[in-house]
User: Fold this.
Amino acid sequence: MRNDKMTNCTSGPDYQSLLYSTTYIIIFIPGLFANSVALWVLCRFVNKKNKAIIFMINLALADLSHVLSLPLRIYYYLTHVWPFKKFLCLLCFYLKYLNMYASIMFLVLISIQRCMFTINPFKAKDWKRRYDIAISCTVWIVIGAACLPFPLFRSSDFNNSSTACFADLGMKTMNVAPALSMIILAELAGFVIPVIMIAYCTLKTKAQLQHNVLQLQNINEKRKALRMVITCAVVFFICFAPYHVNFFFFMLVNFKVIENCTMHKVILTFHPYSLCLASINCCLDPILYYFSASEFKNEVVRHGSSVIRVRLMSRESASSVKS
Assistant:
């Protein structure tokens, strides 16, 4: 009787497949289009000496890596069948967390750099693009390695003939102590420290702007920096804070550390919503580029106007031929 009760407590919500498939369908087209355009504009038209552009390019790449895996996720949650190899399932699973933590790190780096150059403008003049490239490569290597345990935690019963994937995969049996140590480390490095750093950069940049308002120095540039840092903070808290607040308790449920049935249900019910919010960053990050980088905004508007003019001219020529 107790086992039946615990099974009911630990089973995920019935609607999670519908929630995942609907969210991913909504995200896919805007996310693919916005990040493709962002990558194109950032790489071809925006001056690379503009600070944080290299980090923005890497942020767009991180988003695209997740967006391109969404069709497979949509297919699975609509059909509940995984007809592909085990490796592809685990790769898509891995890309989800790679996107999440790479995005977090690049948002933090954008905030730190804009804050640092606002406080010390002379450092910005001496800063080399190769520094940003080296930092970005280091982030990819560290995050890539750090995210490997996420797919490796999944059930060892999963094989190439299995039709289950993603949320339907079980967890490997592990000792609670080392598992919790890894979870706490992930929460500290992937959430708590980034929260502190983004909050500090936001407050410091705002204080610097208020100080410069009194001295009437570089007000516009510092307002742009503050706008970018605040946008990073908003994206971070909307997309990643709910997931990480819930993640620790979700893992405690999986390892049966939390046994209260009501808490089980609350945590498991909130988990799919937090994962969906974490995926929305693929659509919100391009807004960061548009409203925070003036060169990016100008190029998007300019090329958008060119496309509209070409279409209008083609329509006019077509109508004149008919007349």
